[in-house]
C-alpha cells in the first residue's frame, strides 16, 4: 500500500476560521499509533466550537478538526497489537491518554490530565490520513458501513454514556433537549434500544418529523411553546416530570430550565457545552425534591466498544446526510443556524494527490 507524502485537508489557520481546503503533509504514526485512511467523518458541533475557539481550553493552531473518523488502517507503529493493516478503525475525540494516572486506571480515561483530543489538541479527521493512538482507536467490524458508523464515534458514544450516567431504568422517561441535532438523534435511538421512553425538545417541523420517526413519544417545540416546562411535564407519565433530562442544546436557557421539569429524585445530565453558559437551579427545590445534577463527557474505551456494538447489531438507525469534505464551511454555516436535522457525514476523497507525473 503506497502512502502519499501529501494529502487534502480542511485546515483552520486562525481562530474563527473558516477552514481552508488545502494540501498538507501526511502524518507519520509513532510506535504506539496507527495511520488511518479516513473514508467518512462526521461533523460534530464540537468542531464548530474548536474553530471559533469559544471554550476555555486552548486549541491547536493551525488545526485539522474532526473526531468522528471511520476508515482503514494503512500503517502502524511497532508496538501496536490491536490492529492489522487493512482493518477498519474509528478515530474518536479522545485520541489518546496516559493509561497510568488514577483516572485512566479507573477507566475514566476522558478525565486524564494528559489526554490528547482529536481535532482539538492534535490534528483530527478532516483529512485523508489521520493518526491515532492504537489503545484508544475503535475496532470496527468490516460489515459495518463506514459512513453510518462515523457519528457513533463521538455522538453515539457520548449519548450512550450520558444515558447510563443518568441512572434511568427501562420503562422510565427521558427528556432529550436538542433531540433534533446530531447527538440528539442518536440519543433517541440509544434510549429506545435501552428500553427507555423519550420526549424530544427542539425547534421546527423537520426535526419534529425526525424525532417522531426515531421513536420519540412527544415533541415540544421550544420556538413556539408558550411554556416549555409545563409542556414537558404534561408529556410525562402522571405529569410528574421526566426521570432524567439529557441536555444537548448549544444554548444556555435549557440549562437553567431543566430542574423545573425533571421528576423529584431525577437526574439532569449536562452534555452540550454552550460557550460561557452556567447551570442554574434553585437550592430549595434541588434539596427538597432531591435532584441530581451532573456532567457527562464522551465515554471510556469500553463505552466505545458497547456503543459500536449496539450499532453493529442494527439497533441504531439515525438519519445522516453526506457531503464532500470540501463542503465543510457550508456545513458549519448550516450548523450555526441550527438547520441540520441529525448529522452531516463528510466523504473524504479516496484518491491520493499525485506528486509525480
Ligand atoms: O462529551 C460531551 N459532553 C460532548 C460530546 C460531543 C458533543 C459534548 N458535545 C457538545 C457539542 O460541543 C455541542 O455543544 O454537545 C453539543 C451538541 O452537539 P451536536 O449534537 O453536534 O450539535 P447540533 O447537531 O448542532 O445539535 C444541537 C441542537 O440543539 C438545538 C438545536 O436546534 C440543535 O438541533 N437547540 C438549541 I441551539 N437551542 C435549543 C433549545 N433552547 C435547542 N433545543 C432545545 N431547546
Ligand atoms: Zn463530538
H/E topology pattern: EEEHEEEEHEEEHHEHEHEHEHEHEHEHE
Number of E strands: 18
Q: Which percent range describes the beta-strand content? A: 25-35%
Query: What's the CATH class label of the largest domain?
Result: Alpha Beta
- The total domain count is 2
Average residue-wise pLDDT: 97
> Helix content range of the residues, please?
25-40%
Overall body shape: globular
Distance between the termini: 19 Å
Quick one: biggest sheet? 7 strands, mixed
Radius of gyration: 20 Å
Low-confidence stretches: none
**What is the CATH topology assignment of the largest domain?**
Quinone Oxidoreductase, Chain A, domain 1
Number of helices: 11
CATH superfamily of the largest domain: Medium-chain alcohol dehydrogenases, catalytic domain
Which ions and ligands are bound to the chains?
nicotinamide-8-iodo-adenine-dinucleotide, zinc ion
**Overall CATH architecture of the largest domain:** Alpha-Beta Complex
Structural class label: alpha/beta
Family: Belongs to the zinc-containing alcohol dehydrogenase family.
Protein name: alcohol dehydrogenase
Keywords: Metal-binding, NAD, Oxidoreductase, Zinc
Pfam family, one: ADH_zinc_N
